[in-house]
Design goal:
The chain is an all-alpha fold. It is 70% helix and 0% strand. The chain has 5 helices and no strands. It has helices spanning 6-19, 23-33, 49-66, 83-88, 91-158. The chain is rod-shaped.
Length: 166
């Protein structure tokens, strides 16, 4: 693995200070670090190199924190971390944060599943109640028809000479 020397890091900070408009600070750092003796060709260092380098380092740290315990794979969903956490906590603390987040997320998902299941059960109960109500309505309709038939037959027996006209 390649490592960054202090001279290279000083140059990156020097360039960052220049690019950010801190010319006096850049000059002071350059003079005190002896960057004029440094063999780095500034034309080959892209603008924003320090920021890019730090961002990649944070991404690497974030990836490392998301690795499984055996460091072979990312478990479940990748959890994004805040830059302040990446800068202030070590990998073990970051992993613990991610583990707690995932546990909390899993509990929330389980709670949502339970709520959905309760809602589905309520809907099934409402459907059963509607079906019972339809059945009661059909029963009332059959009872009404039966009463109409009975009253018709009673009327027929009472007035047998009455003929039905079509």
């Amino acid at each position: 693995m390649a490592s960054l020397t202090s001279n290279e890091l000083n140059f990156l900070v020097f360039r960052y200070l220049q690019e950010s408009g801190f010319l006096h600070s850049a000059f002071t750092l350059g003079f005190e670090a002896g960057l004029h003796k440094n063999p780095i060709d500034g034309n080959q260092v892209p603008p924003g190199a320090l920021v890019s380098f730090v961002q990649k380092g944070l991404q690497y740290l974030e990836l490392e924190a998301n690795l499984s315990d055996d460091c072979t794979d990312v478990e479940g969903d990748f959890s994004l971390l805040q830059p302040v956490d990446l800068l202030t906590k070590d990998v073990a603390e970051l992993r613990q944060m991610i583990k707690e987040r995932k546990e909390k997320l899993e509990k929330e998902k389980e709670r949502e599943r339970e709520e959905k299941e309760k809602e589905r059960e309520k809907e099934r109960e409402r459907e059963r109640e509607r079906e019972r109500e339809r059945e009661r309505e059909r029963e009332r309709e059959r009872e009404r028809e039966r009463k109409e038939k009975m009253s018709f037959f009673k009327a027929w027996k009472i007035f047998p000479s009455l003929e039905l006209n079509n």
